[in-house]
Structure formats: C-alpha cells, structure tokens
Automatic annotation (TrEMBL):
It comes from Octadecabacter dasysiphoniae. Coiled coil: none annotated. InterPro entries: Cupin_2 (IPR013096), RmlC-like_jellyroll (IPR014710), RmlC_Cupin_sf (IPR011051). This is Cupin domain-containing protein. Residues 72-132 form the Cupin type-2 domain. It comes from the Bacteria.
Amino acid sequence: MTPADMDARIVRYGDLQPCKTAFIDAHTPGSDQKENFTIIGGGVSESPDQHVHIAIPHGFNIGAAGQPPRVTNSLHDHHTAEVFFVLKGKWRFFWGRYGDAGEVTLEEGDIFNIPTGIFRGFENIGTDYGMIMAVLGGDDAGGGVMWAPQVIENAAAHGLVLGEDGKLYDTKRQQKLPDGVAPMPLMSAEDLAKRPEPTTADVLPNHVARYWDMMALADRKPVTVIGETGLLRDKPGFEVDFITRGSASAAKHSHTYPSVLMPMRGHWKVAWDGGAATLAPGDTMSVPENLAHSVVPSMTGEASLYHVVATGDAAGHTWTE
C-alpha cells in the first residue's frame, strides 16, 4: 500500500462534510441545527445531500453527529447495533417510547452500546459545539431508521414527510410524494407495546463504559470494550478495543477484516510496509484487511485510541433483561 493509497482511507476531522438535512427532524425546532456525518459506509441518512467519505464495505458503518448546545437528536431506533463514544462535549442520552424510561450523561471518551428495540435520542448539554462518533452494525446499517411516532408527526407539521421508500420530501420546497409512494406509516400501538422500557439502573452496568476506567484498565494491554469477552459483553458484528500509551505496541499485526482507528486523545503514528501516517483526535482511518501495521503514540502526553474491527457475527442485538 502506497502512502497515496492509504491517504484515501483517512478522513481528517477538519475535512468532515456535514449534512444538515439528513433526517426527518431537520426542520423540527430544537433539532434543526444538528449535523450528520457519514464517514465509512453508506450510513442511514434519508437525504441525497449526505456525503459519504469512504464507501468501502467494512462489515459496519462509522458516522458522527455534531450539535450545538441544547440541540436534540430525536427518538429513533435501528435494526442493527449502535455504539457511540463522545469525542467532544457533554451529552445526555435518553430512551423509551417518550424518552423518559431512563437516561445517562456521557463525558468525553465514554462509550455507550445501545441495544436494538429501544427508541433512543441524545442532546448536547455542554457549553460548546459537541461531537459524538458512532458505529452501526452491518454494511447497510440495517436499512434505515425507525422513528417514534411523535417524531414523524412533528416533522410533518414543519414540512418534512418521510416516504415508504425511506426518502424525505420537503413540502417547503414544493416536493411531493411520488405516485405510488405512501407516507411512512406510524408504528402500531401493538408494536409499540412490545418495546421494552429499561430503566437507567438496567442499562448502565452492561452498556456504558467510562473513559477513565478504560484508561486504567488499558494501562498495560489493550482492553476489549465491546465483544464476546469485552467489558460490555456483546456480539454486534464488530469488536471495539481501547488502546493507551501504555498498551500500544510497535509490533505489526493484521486482521482478516478491514479495521478502523479512531484517536480519542493524542497523536498516533500508523506504520505499514511502504509508508506511515499520523492521526489526531477526530480523525478516522480505515486499514485494509491483511495489511500488517503498527499503531503507537507519536507525541508525549495523554494518548488513547478506539479500534474497531468486524467479527462476522450477526449485526444486531435486542434488549434482554
């Protein structure tokens, strides 16, 4: 792999291209200032305006959400796993039919593995623009987003209609549903009644890992955060590892699936036969399958990095008690 080949697989934080019309709540007051980023894979955007940085299939998708303070991402669900870690700011995550079943506050570096089958939303409760990074299971991320009924109703009141084809139509731009395409139906009362409403106490122990706990645990060797034997035991179709300065190794290794490197703190040097690159927080790098490479901090100071690799398992999991 030449440096030019690998450079095409690096998305720099400063080069991220946001989409402000990605989802059905793009006009809804309180949600109309959020930005969506599709970094690796097709993502789940409902808008043709969404830019995809790297379209290479990985077995999972990487995206991000950026929001000013007090801006909310509306209640939704996916058919596959959804994992977030906070890159910048302070965030409140909430879940349930009306978003009041439970909630948790995440600080920078914290990670949240959210089961399918539960409506979830999130809000930037910090004082500055915040950014959360996301991993979605599967190459097609489950084929779209399921919205809480009130989200669809509120969006229609502000001019956005979601069609059964999964595309948005903006009545403020005189757009209409095409012939033969009906509006996306609201979830039935029967289906809504089947959805669990776990409390905060139910969710926290097995679905949230704190940054400073992981920093301590990964002092000597990398920690599997999400995986069959991870801190958050799960098989969502990918594994998430956490690496620090103390657990990084200059020895080259490879994976049978493409992997992704996402620095949280510090600068990291990635080296392979034929070249090297330096990553900073917010950068995302796709490493090809079977490419031997090493990853080590390149500067002094705090250093931490999330590593994601596909496992070939099923890409979804449903809430269980």
